[in-house]
Amino acid sequence: MKTRKFILIYFLILGNQYSNACSSIVLKNQHSIFLAKNFDWTYGNGYLLKNIRGVQKRAFITGTGNAANWTSKYGSVTFTQNGKEMPYGGMNEKGLAIEMLWLEYTEYYINEITPYLNELEWIQYQLDNYASIDEVIQNINTLSIRPFKGKIHFIVADANGKSIVVEHIGGKIKYEMKEANHCQAITNFDIAASSDWYFKNKTATGSVANPLYRYSLLQKDIADNSFANNLSAKTALDILDNVAIKKGNFKTYWTIVYDITKKEIHFKSADAKNVKRLAFATLDFNTTKEAIDINTPMKEDISNSLIPYTVAMNTNLVSTSFKLLGLERTDAVAISKNQFDFASTPDNSYTINYVTLKITVTTDDSSKLGKIGIVIMDGEENFKKFLPFRDGFHQISAAGSTYTWLYYGLPKNNYAIAVVQDENNNKRPDFATEKYAFSNGKRISNGSLPSFEDCKVVMQEGVKEVELLLQSEK
């Protein structure tokens, strides 16, 4: 196998670097507070759910340690593709609103002492228990996240006018808080990287497929402050329309606006473009779990149109979404049932079939890593063709001499891993002059790449750590 075939990896990486998207903004003035989000994805089905008070809950077991237990204090309305207790976002009756967005280089801190829940249960937990940003911050270290799949950061706003972006970077929780009347935005890079890019590229043009460009557009809207005296749900909808991905299989499927002041939700979808409105004042959070299809063709007020939400509806939602997420080995019936009876066991379809892969890349001389591409490959045939496993490729420009990337929810199997530098920006590996590494420390020999069998790493335990040392041929 000749090394020139490795070029395919870089074209794959570069062609998919923006494959996970979303945009969110918190708008505030003296009279109103809105949290708004575009949900960009490959799939648009889902439900709006009403969640009731007084429900005893336990997190789904995704590993060793103690799954969190709690009782819902507040009622809420959430949006989900993954079942009743795993929303993408929502708002509770006190006006605490939360949304999540993809952040590829997320690394959650996991310990065996702190109770845990998964990345989407974290959203429901906040809505169930807290009324304000202050409460969220005070309790931010009381739970850890053991994810199913998602590498995400969160944007949260409350009725007091505060907002916060919460991120898990390098195994540490970081957050940026904005006080009342100070707006906030986020897309798919961390706050520090997004802010740095914006201040260096304020006048740049680009494509809304680029999350940094979308962030720049949102920040320009904030700086313009044209809504200072006239802020409404339509303002938020118009701003999000400017950063929406409107064509293709990967596009903006949902647009959601939480009117925190009035405690109303406005939303539309790519398949049902009429804006719907739900008023919390009409909801009873003491009885009956209720829902409505997010793609309902109804117009305007849907407050009296929710229907009872059943286990069958939930199971169908979980089954479809988990397959698209690459979690097809999970038992959708059991996971859905757990979202109603909270009785998952340690040996469930997730813990039996999936692992976390933690890849740490370093150099042999402590120099800056620079632009690197990481690829995970399964099986001899895919290794020969250098075809990455699903979502098993990642490109980043790393400023330090060490970089860690995680793949959560990787099916148990055997994999080979490679990392290459592209310091000369020619979008191809130059093994003679640039550094590279394969798993198990294997190197190129006589112009040929090592075999899959030589590079194979067995993934069977809960967390598998692999270290790759970048070295040159010089």
Short characterization:
With 474 residues, the chain is an alpha+beta fold. It contains eleven helices and 28 strands. The strands form six sheets. A nine-stranded antiparallel sheet has the order 13-12-11-8-7-6-3-18-20, with helices on one face. A seven-stranded mixed sheet has the order 14-1-2-15-16-17-19, with helices on one face.
What does this protein look like?
This protein is α+β, with helices and mostly antiparallel strands. It is built from 11 helices and 28 strands. The chain has helices at residues 7-15, 121-129, 133-138, 191-200, 211-224, 233-241, 311-324, 332-341, 349-353, 380-385, 452-455; strands at residues 23-28, 33-41, 47-51, 56-58, 69-71, 76-80, 89-92, 97-102, 116-117, 144-145, 152-157, 163-169, 172-178, 184-186, 251-259, 264-269, 272-279, 290-293, 300-301, 307-308, 354-363, 370-378, 393-398, 402-411, 413-421, 436-438, 457-459, 463-470. It has a 9-stranded antiparallel sheet with strand order 13-12-11-8-7-6-3-18-20, covered by helices on one side. A 7-stranded mixed sheet has the order 14-1-2-15-16-17-19, with helices on one face. The chain is globular and about 75 Å long. The two termini are 21 Å apart. Mean pLDDT is 93; it is low at 1-17.
